[in-house]
Amino acid sequence: MPNESLHRNETIAAYHQFAGLSKPIHPLISVVRFDDIKPRMTDRPKSVVNNFYSVALKWNFNGRLKYGQQDYDFDEGVMVFLAPGQVLSVTAGESHEHSGWLLMVHPDFLWNTPLAKTIRQHDYFDYSIHEALFLSEREETVIVGIIEQIRQEYQAPVDKFSQPIIIAQLEVLLNYADRFYQRQFITRKITNHKLLDRFEAVLDTCFESEALQDHGLPTVGFLAEQLNLSPTYLSSLLKSITGQNTQQHIHGKLIKKAKEKLSMTDLSISEIAWQLGFGHPQSFSKFFRNKTNSTPLAFRHSFN
User: Fold this and answer.
1) What is the pTM of this model?
2) Which of 70, 208, 262, 270 could pair covalently with 130 via S-S, beta carbons 3.0-4.6 A apart?
3) Nearest to 61 by CA among 52, 72, 70
């Protein structure tokens, strides 16, 4: 059906046309108010892919956004970060009334700048929609102030300082977002610790079943899927709570199970390696030594 089709905007100008906006002042960067975006017709595609970075700050969104299999209802002000190529599905309410800011930056604008290499180091560009950043009133003021500065700068006459100034402002905006996400991890302690408990339960199940023998170690992607989270968000969350990312938790659980089997059973090193999902005993021995500075056999002998 037409309204289920995928629409791709290769340029910011294409998005302006798609959203019913006037032509952008600059071909590679734009800041628009959501108030100015015209309501989409019912035959417009619901899934959109933009070939540029998008940073959205929204209030009072009358509808739902979907990323992958996740729906999120924007009842209050939030920030969402999308990298080029991400699929975003929108199911808006009849009035489609919401406010806020949309900052769009084409990768070509970042060309030959340090930010071109570092922008994807900001993990939230890989988060899902339901992992949006909720801002306090003070934080909203900071973000809006930076966005308005960027808007003023790219609307001014272009000179040799224009791009460096905007790039610097973008870096400040992204660094503040990093700070505010860390605050969100801390202030949502109850919710986050419940997620940690669920994560530990899923991980325990993986190691208590025979899945390791059949499928090997659980992947970060598998664990994140079980928790309804994106892999990057899960690792960031775990890092903020425990100091270790998802992969480190998996390896920690593996070493714990290996030590239990080495100290409490008479299984051979090969049998233990097989039960823990290793195809070869040598791989298990190398992994164990790298993590503990001891061979499996030496660890076992320490209990005799």
Assistant:
1) 0.70
2) 70
3) 72
The pLDDT, as a whole number, for residue 148 is: 95
Place of tokens 């080029």: 84
Q: Which CA distances in Å does 103 have to 31, 55, 123, 156, 234?
A: 5, 5, 18, 17, 26
- Partners of 133 in the β-ladder: 79
Q: What is the pLDDT of residue 205?
A: 87
Residues 6+ apart with CB under 8 A from 150: 29, 31, 103, 166, 169, 170, 173
Tell me the two tokens of residue 72: 């999120």
Half-sphere exposure of 271 (CA within 13 A, CB side): 6
Please check the confidence at residue 49 and state whether its pLDDT lies above 70: yes
Percent of the chain with pLDDT over 70: 85
Report angle CA 118, 178, 96 to the nearest 5 degrees.
Answer: 100
In whole angstroms, give the CA distance from residue 143 to residue 135. 9
**pLDDT tier at 74, thresholds 50, 70, 90:** very low
User: Pick from 15, 7, 6: which is nearest to 104 by CA?
Assistant: 15
pLDDT at residue 12 is higher than 90: yes
Residue 93 DSSP one-character state: -
Residue 301's pLDDT is what?
85
Look at strands 47-50 and 70-73 and give their pairing: unpaired
Q: Measured between alpha carbons, how far is 56 from 80 in angstroms, rounded to an integer?
A: 5
Burial of 54 (0-12, 13-18, 19+ CB in 10 A): buried
Phi-psi region of 60 (alpha: psi -120 to 50; beta: other; left: phi over 0): left
**What distance in Å separates the CA atoms of residue 86 and residue 90, rounded to the nearest whole number?**
13
pLDDT of 47 reads 78
Question: Mean pLDDT across the chain, nearest whole number?
Answer: 84
Residue 193 burial (CB count, 10 A)? 11
Cβ-defined contacts of 227-231 (< 8 Å, 24+): 227/195, 227/198, 227/199, 227/202, 228/70, 228/130, 229/128, 229/131, 229/195, 230/126, 230/127, 230/128, 230/131, 231/126
